[in-house]
Design goal:
With about 450 residues, the protein is an alpha+beta fold. It is built from 15 helices and 11 strands.
Length: about 450
């Protein structure tokens, strides 16, 4: 069955992705550019995106041609005397010149190679610091989550988790904030919860991530269990719940005379009335009233969740808002960067373990775009951009030829052994690395494509 696609939402997500990657690519390549110029290397080209056969824009300033290519798969700086993606073999046959990369000592070449990664890490530091300075943060302490968890994915039910369970620890470590629960579950083997005052161990299957990928589910595995408050309405003008007379802020106390204490308890009661009607008993400003609403063929009335602040006001949990001064924000930004890096490395390890099935979830541009919300929100945009900057830094340091990490590896070997790798070997290694990366890119975007059309 083909899914309807909201192209306006897709357009907003695509614009955010293109803007985010363009910023990060330019800054990454600037890291190579500025260090190359620092050591008096000639930089022949500085390009956003690749330009095989032609470019969309180019202008030469001094020794360097600045331009924008038409193939949005990255960017590059072409440094004289360096074996890179340009594969300029003819230039490498000529005698080395003082302004060329290959004529510089190994330690200088190493700094040039890690210049892009260094800038990406610094960018993440700065973005996270400015996010904390401007917006602060609103973590929810786990010990304030009064009602336990709400299972929003059947895989958690199959693992043994139940609505109302209170999380004690994940992988033998206490969880300080609920915000961290879902990402920790993905890499966890077990969880300890309390149910009716009794501790229970929940064991997760090794292929949990693989099953999530196969089912095309992107929602969070668990949420906080919340009160039955009336919140948003799906497409308000056509929502049965909205047209019935329900209002934002109403507290539902019963569905067809069956008492409910939590939002999740309403869902199965309403779902039983497909194509029928359901009676909500609500409390509005201290008054009790009955409101009848139609139910659609999917067993829904169009009633959505309330805002997180409304649930906090209802006493379901506490939001621990923290503001940061300009100078407090920078060490906090550093801490957040390394925390995000650690989380990403843990998830990356899953991909390297075939038994987890996580490799099935490797995605390309569609997956990256879907991370952005369908409306432009600056806090979300910069937060995602900072995370992408961390990912770009980590991936570029992998010891794969054609990536910065491959060049770094060969340079370190040279510094340890005192012998420079043969230039013909470096050429072949560059080709192998480029073929590998192209294959990986085709695989990742293939996952996206087939996932989109299933």
């Amino acid at each position: 069955m083909l899914l309807a696609i909201n192209w306006a939402d897709v357009g907003v997500q695509a614009a955010q992705l293109l803007t985010s990657l363009s910023i990060l690519i330019i800054l990454h390549e600037f890291g190579h550019f500025i260090t190359a110029r620092w050591f008096k290397c000639r930089v022949e080209k500085f390009y956003l995106f690749f330009d095989p056969w032609f470019s969309l824009f180019k202008k030469k300033v001094g020794e360097t041609e600045y331009g924008i290519g038409w193939l949005p798969l990255g960017g590059y700086v072409k440094i004289s005397g360096m074996i890179d993606e340009s594969m300029d073999k003819d230039a490498m046959k000529l005698p080395a010149q003082p302004w060329e990369f290959r004529s510089k000592p190994a330690w200088q070449r190493l700094i040039i190679m890690i210049g892009g990664v260094t800038v990406n890490v610094l960018v993440a530091f700065i973005i996270y610091a400015m996010i904390l300075f401007v917006w602060g943060e609103d973590p929810i302490p786990m010990n304030t989550v009064k009602n336990g968890v709400w299972i929003t994915d059947s895989l958690m039910y199959e693992a043994g988790l139940r609505n109302g369970d209170k999380i004690v620890s994940i992988s033998d470590k206490p969880v300080e904030y609920f915000d961290d629960v879902n990402k920790k579950i993905l890499t966890a083997k077990e969880m300890i919860v309390t149910r009716n005052g009794v501790e229970k161990k929940i064991v997760f299957q090794t292929d949990l991530v693989g099953k999530l990928v196969e089912s095309k589910r992107r929602r969070r595995l668990v949420e906080m269990r919340v009160s039955p408050l009336v919140g948003a309405f799906d497409k308000k003008d056509t929502s049965y719940a909205s047209r019935s007379g329900l209002k934002k802020g109403d507290r539902i106390i019963a569905v067809d005379s069956v008492a409910v204490s939590y939002f999740d308890e309403m869902i199965p009661l309403v779902a039983k009335k497909k194509n029928g009607t359901v009676q909500f008993t609500v409390n509005r400003n201290g008054d009790t009233m009955n409101i009848v609403s139609k139910v659609n063929a999917d067993g829904k009335t169009g009633l959505g969740l309330a805002d997180i602040e409304d649930y906090a006001a209802a006493g379901d949990f506490k939001i621990n808002h923290r503001s940061y001064s300009f100078f407090e924000a920078f060490p906090a930004g550093v801490k957040k960067t390394f925390s995000k890096l650690g989380d990403y490395i843990e998830q990356f390890k899953l991909i390297l373990r075939p038994e987890t099935g996580a490799y099935k979830g490797v995605g390309g541009f569609k997956s990256m775009g879907s991370v952005f919300p369908p409306v432009w929100n600056w806090e979300n945009f910069w937060s995602i951009t900072a995370f992408f900057s961390i990912v770009l830094a980590f991936m570029n340091l992998l010891p794969i030829p054609a990536l910065d990490g491959g060049h770094v590896l060969f340079t370190l070997i040279e510094m340890i052994t005192g012998r420079k790798p043969n230039e013909k070997f470096l050429e072949y290694a560059q080709i192998v690395g480029m073929v590998f990366l192209l294959g990986l890119m085709l695989y990742a975007n293939g996952n996206d494509w087939f996932g989109w059309n299933k």
